[in-house]
Design goal:
Blueprint (H helix, E strand, L loop, with lengths): L15 E11 L6 E8 L3 E6 L8 E10 L2 E18 L4 E11 L2 H14 L8 H8 L3
Antiparallel strand pairs: 1-2, 1-4, 2-3, 3-6, 4-5, 5-6
Amino acid sequence: MDSQHPDIERRRFERFLVDYPISYVSQNRAEISTGMAVNISEGGLLAYLFDRIGVGEELDLEMFYASELQFTALSAQARIVWKDVIETSEAINYQYGIKFTRMDKKERIKLAKLLASVHSTYPYPTQESILDIKKPI
């Protein structure tokens, strides 16, 4: 975050709020686990997962969403880049920053279409979006 503009994200890619289920297999487990993606960008996503996973761990990930009246899955290989523990009175959940590390061309096209479709929702403000506002018309 920018100290002069605390509401500005300084991320490489613009992030968009979503609420999509995900499934994944980590390098240290054979079984499929699940969670929820809460924001997404070209570079990765923020997810809430039920499992404790180490930073740096690799995942085979699928995210599920509706596209053109069909249920669609986006597949990628990814890496955990940071984590945070979220404790509530009901459960302990984990929040993870997940970076896409490998995605084939077909999946990249699906991601681009998905991001274009969610672009109409309110994204997190970026430095560029604030600077665009200040430009004279």
